[in-house]
Amino acid sequence: MPVRLPNPDKDFIGQYNRLSASQVNTWKACPRLWYYEKVRRFVMPQIPILFVGRAVEEAICKTLKEAPTLIVATAPEDIYAPTPLDEDGRPNRNYDEKWPADQLLLLPVSKWPTDKATLLAWAEKRVLMHLAASLEAMRAEWSKHDRRAGNWEDDVDIKRCAQMATNGIRMHMQEVEVCYNTIDDAELEQWRSGHRHQWPAPDGRGYTLEAHPLAQSGEIKWLEAWEIARPWFVDPDAKPFMMNAVHPEHWFQGEYDLVYRWGNQIKIVDIKASLGNSDRSGDYVEQMRMYAYLWWSTHDNEPVDDLEIWYLAADAKKQIDVPSEEELNNLGDELRALWSELREETPSIEQCPPEPAPMRSFGPGGIASDEEPEKTRCQRCDWSHICPNGEWVGDQPSGGLFHLPGLSTETKAIPLNELETRHTVTGRVHALINGPQKRITIAEGNSAFADVQIKASEYKDGGPTVPDDLEKGELVGVQNAFFQINYKGALVLKVDPFARIVRLNEGDEETSLHTPRARWDVVGTVVYRTEKRGASNRGAWCRKGLMIMDENGSLKVEGWQADWGPQYDMLEPGDKVVITNIGIDGWAALERGEMYRVSRLHILHD
Questions:
Q1: Are residues 126 and 83 located together in one domain of the fold?
Q2: Three-class SS state of 10
Q3: In this structure, what DSSP letter does residue 568 have?
Q4: How far, in Å, CA of 585 to CA of 174, rounded?
Q5: What is the DSSP code (8-state) at residue 54?
Q6: Is residue 385 part of a domain?
Q7: What percent of the chain has pLDDT over 70?
Q8: H-type alpha helices, 260-365
Q9: What's the predicted TM-score (pTM) here?
Q10: Which of 26, 149, 239, 485 has a CA between 20 and 30 Å from the CA of residue 359?
Q11: Model confidence over 512-561: pLDDT tens digits?
């Protein structure tokens, strides 16, 4: 099966600590690059082309999901109702009402495509209908990203996108044609009788069928070949990262683009909305080899039959040699050792040296080339300005004392790895507000109160974050929560999946609400700036931020535009700054600094 869920009773690694093909390729490209992006959590500039690829793939998959017996070529792109999902965001196995495809009536037979040409014409029109909507959705997502770069109107060529989407559909039609010409009678009758895989290819229908409602009689029809040849892919309605294949030992995971399973074959296809003429084409080959290993390890050592990369801009398929059993064993040993090195314990920056691999050359279609690359890996790297192998000279800051303008005393900045981001406090329940936005107020005597904001209902290790029958007056501990003083001077505790409220008994040790430190002074090097804009009932708003780093850690600091002061617009990446009186907020493993009206930004000059 293309999906293998983790076993919660044996998964002691967790989804955030697994290895993936992209991590492996990043590490091999440069260990320091991996460290910056996976440990320090630096986010590369989000250029439109990254979102275009997702839009093209989504349009292709939405077309593959549809049936030409149910939908005319010019129908709206959202004619299928959304797939019913379970609480985890996967298609719901227990849904017992009509599925989206069952809610549509069959078209008159006169509207059905009857040969390859009419079927292809239908599919090409459908993919362009979906592409327009997918591009608009991706444009909106790009515009909201705080690291967006480039210009959508200038950087996105609609005609090129349309050609890539059409090329992808034509490549799939080649599979449909082979199915039409070679499918055996036994498999055809099995499909007609309603056979479904455990994880069927998304087609708007449920997991079991008594007989397929689109089955015909006699020789196979082109419409049936379309249905039978449909590959598995991630249902476009499913939540992200919910349909991974996870290694039996839980240390590796991946998500396939397409998996063709008819004709007693397993063909894994990766879709690339590119020409394939960049260094990344070398990564894609390694990615496919790792996918072959993942399939093999999750299917009792049964190998895949075929591996392909579809370069849509080049209109070319690239065949990848399937690794032998010996190669798969060796690859598994290599990946397991790499997981132990990178994820069993987080390596230090010294263990991730800035040693980039040479750049590789490829022509269109991912064909290896002997041409000399135009730039080195460091010249192309987004982090060259803060890397000792790039433009950075000297040492990174690590806390210290600073005499800042306008202050009579020195400011003591703390190293970023010494920030106390989560705290445990105790108090008595003073007030409870139930409902979708559950909130609790706890009190220490009659003088200190804290607003406890419940942002997650389930604790990371299972169980609720808040006891269901909590009552006013009970003694509780708020464990491992983010602690802040808001702009009004009130104490605030935030409960996310890594925090929870527990009952305490009279006489248990208590921790005062006055114990945690809520404001911090930090120093660091500016890695990049961020910006979010939007509108609300109160008008337009803007939140700006900085990613800063020091010798031992990194921190993203955000705040409303007015709280940053005039020096923010004078900053350049690579500048050293001191930021005073910031709070700490975050979600799960992601932490961030919060600017307030009393916070100040100071640029340090050598």
A1: yes
A2: coil
A3: G
A4: 52
A5: H
A6: no
A7: 99
A8: 280-298, 325-339
A9: 0.90
A10: 149
A11: 988 889 899 999 999 999 999 988 888 899 999 999 999 999 999 999 99
